[in-house]
Predict the structure.
Amino acid sequence: MKTKHAWLYDTTGESDRRQVTILSVTPELVTYYPYGGGFQCKQPNSDHIVIEYVDSFAPDYEWGWFGIDEPEFKGVHNKNQNWNGWECPSFNRQESEQIAKKWFCEGELEFSWDGDSLVIKDTYHLVDGEPATVIEPNDLFNDGRQFYPIGAAEWCWSFWTEEEANSFFDMENTDD
């Protein structure tokens, strides 16, 4: 069976409706991956299991704050896409430069712009002749604004809503 995207849920209400990539379906077992990444799952098949196949999942973009350990950078992500449970954010050019200045200028990574493309050169791990990483912008909203998926599906990004980020910042600024 060719892999297909689907909504998977149990009509008894024992599990939430979730987005998956179906690997196989037998009368006894449904094998799938969570959509966007994660470990392979196996679930007993029954009359209560519903699989609704779809061609693709529509993007559901959400703005917020992203960081590795704390909210640091304002960006956007598709709530329907993750990588092994981590977020896959994109950032505008200004925010991308802030990320590059903070994390790439430590002597091991260099960044530069080639037109609208962000070029990252790993000067520490790069083997002679190996090309630099080029991050091309995406027009996520079809309105001309460009966003860069820095570290998407590579780094362990966490997401904070505006309210959660403000609470985090308030706690950091509280004097003990």
